Amino acid sequence: MITEEQENEGLIVQFKQEVMKLATLDISDEQVLRGILERLVDRIEVARDVGITIHYNFKNPLPSRA
What are the residue ranges spanned by the domains of the chain? Predict the structure, then answer.
């Protein structure tokens, strides 16, 4: 249980670091914005009846609550 909590804490720290990097970038440059999106998004699926599903390159750092 402690290991899982430490792992979650590490993921949260890592997530915060990535957010801070993104917050300080100049995204008015199209190439910079494209690079950011390529790092964050794995793929986007568009289904006619279902809608759009975005698959990210990272996992949620917060534990899910069941």
Answer: 2-56
| pLDDT for the residue numbered 30 | 83
Closest CA to 43 of 60, 63, 57: 57
Supply the pLDDT for residue 60: 60
Statement: the pTM of the whole predicted model exceeds 0.90: no
Torsion from C-alpha of 33, 34, 37, 42, nearest 10 degrees: 180
Consecutive H or E run containing 5:
helix 2-23
Rounded alpha-carbon distances, angstroms, from residue 61 to 2, 7, 9, 19, 46: 16, 9, 8, 12, 26
Residue 59's pLDDT is 65
Paired tokens of 57:
């390159």
